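Can't paste images in this forum, so I'm doing it all in text. The chain is below; anyone willing to post the predicted structure tokens underneath?
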Amino acid sequence: MIEVSGLTKSYGQHLAIQNLTFTINKGEVVGFLGPNGAGKSTTMKIITGYMAPTSGEAKVCGFDVFENPIEVKKRIGYLPETPPVYLDMYVKDYLQYVAELKGVEKNKIKANIDRALEKTNLQDVRSRMIGNLSKGFRQRVGIAQALVSDPDVLILDEPTVGLDPKQVAEIRELIKELRGQHTIILSTHILPEVQAVCERIIIINKGHIVAQDSLSNLSRLKTGGRKVNLRLKRSSPDVMGILSHVAGVSKVHTGVSQQDWVLDTTENDEVIEAVAQEVMKKGLGLLEISSAKADLEDVFLKLTYGESESKIEPKVEVTHG
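Text version of the structure:
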């Protein structure tokens, strides 16, 4: 459905993205994840034909973005970071305008508008002026304009930025409802966004792809250790020193209370037993001990920040099962 090969974009001496290669299959919901300034929006603009690359190619539904731009644009619905809405237009008139602009057949325009309004839950405001709507509703109008041509591919660039928690939840639910009906790329730097709606993730950092795989596989990616959560019955000024000397424990952090501690440890399961034995031997009163392998946040921070801000981590592709 989407094929990107060797995509590079430079601004003078600055490389915004470099040699990006990935494929997105029909019906997938893929999170394009990275810190601010990583190159996400640049990549989205190239795929949609808004911007030309310095080198490389991008294809949508088999059509090259720059050799067949009209064919590509017919098949893409795009919501940029700032919704492209006209505040002095009524919702239904704006969607009519967008449908005509995108070349939707005249006998399908009304049905497409009604479908876009229904999917985005905008029926009750279809006759209202966009400028009088809340930011959350304007965002929905932006998604409706991306849907009005019934595109094969839907590209959403930071769709929940600046929204309140209720509006964020509504937009996420909408994206879930669109799953399976469209191939969706969700470009964001917000981890919960990806975990809530995406099946596969591409992580970009400083213009390079550093990992791409399913959410579950990336969450299993080793980051060099695990976290052990510990709750003790009795607090002691010696706790940190006691726990730090257990073999396999690299760092000890205080938790949410004086009874709670978080330990950075190796992946070896024996370290949990060693911690429990040491706590009981010192009479600290073991109330709870649990461990968690690296979650998406751990993986994301490791791959995008790592140990050195100046070093690009090698690309990681996890291929379990």
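Residues 118 and 144 are 9 Å apart (CA to CA). The first strand starts at residue 2 and ends at 11.
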